[in-house]
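Let us practice reading a record.
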Amino acid sequence: MSGYILETKHLTKEFKGFTAVNDVNLKVQRGHIHALIGPNGAGKTTCFNLLTKFLVPSSGQILLNGKDITAAKPAQIARMGVIRSFQISAVFPHLTVLQNVRIGLQRQLGSSFNFWQSERSLNRLNERAMELLAQVDLSEFADTITVDMPYGRKRALEIATTLAMEPELMLLDEPTQGMGHEDVHRVTELIKKVSIGRTILMVEHNMKVVSGICDKISVLQRGAMLAEGSYAEVSRNPQVMEAYMGTEAALLEGAH
């Protein structure tokens, strides 16, 4: 098995004459935290939608562990261990924090997403659910109704429910978007912690986050791959500086 968990070959997506993703060759190395960055409208979210099969590519290939998954359906991709968290917090607001994680764990009962399970059968998932909450520092919130939690904690819960699906590859879509400084720091540390033994591909605007935890960065511009490498390499690339408003300062904003 190659060192790459995920590869795209000439991945392209066109919408009625507009090319949103253009001939992208992406290689995500196993065990890395890999960021997909770029100015607004660069094609990052479209790329994520192609990888998780919410969109069908116009052309090109997607390989997972060397296997062509271009024609796979979203549910098949999830069963293969590719789990995505969304830009907008995707949790059930009127359930408790513990209940949210239990739903993610229901796969293990062989009764995937059967919301009408008896409480008794779900209780055996409590121990594992509490372990996951401990991992994301939410143990004390187990019985809190999710809607009452601070925004940053909801994102941590989302990571816990993603972990409940036992992902081999986690796709995080703007995990720190809309957060204050303290929450950004907490969630960044959390991503670092849960990345051990896993691979993470993330779309992220916050350059401080990217520079702090990512092993490799791919920069998209107008749907095409502009540059790739470590943060140091990418931030020195003149084309990347230009894409980010023509100054190094714009790319490095908040990174130190």
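A brief commentary: Residues 13 and 58 are 5 Å apart (CA to CA).
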